[in-house]
Amino acid sequence: MKKLVWLLVIVAAMFFALQGGEYSTRDLFRQRDRKEKMQVSLDSLQRHVDSLKAVRKAIEADPAVQEKLAREEFGMVRGDKELLYRFVEDSVAVEPGK
Fold first, then answer.
1. More confidently predicted of 8 and 22
2. How is residue 23 annotated by DSSP?
3. What is d(CA 30, CA 7) in angstroms, rounded to the nearest whole number?
4. With left for phi above 0 and alpha for psi between -120 and 50, is residue 79 left, alpha or beta?
């Protein structure tokens, strides 16, 4: 009988050591999975930051990129040799016959 009690105490202590306490085994596995997901997210964000740095460097240093950006974003033209045409669609619909 005494051996059975000691066996139960040992089994209960082992169970508490694995599953109880502040950080159970299950919590440690969850934390590891969360860390892996966060690392994947961090890697993705780092790639995005690197691509933005490359774009910034190209804008600062490459005259072709600067010209393209000036033309597309700001509607700039070269000297008197070029004209800029802007086509604006009417926002008011006109009914036929009026």
1. 8
2. S
3. 30
4. left
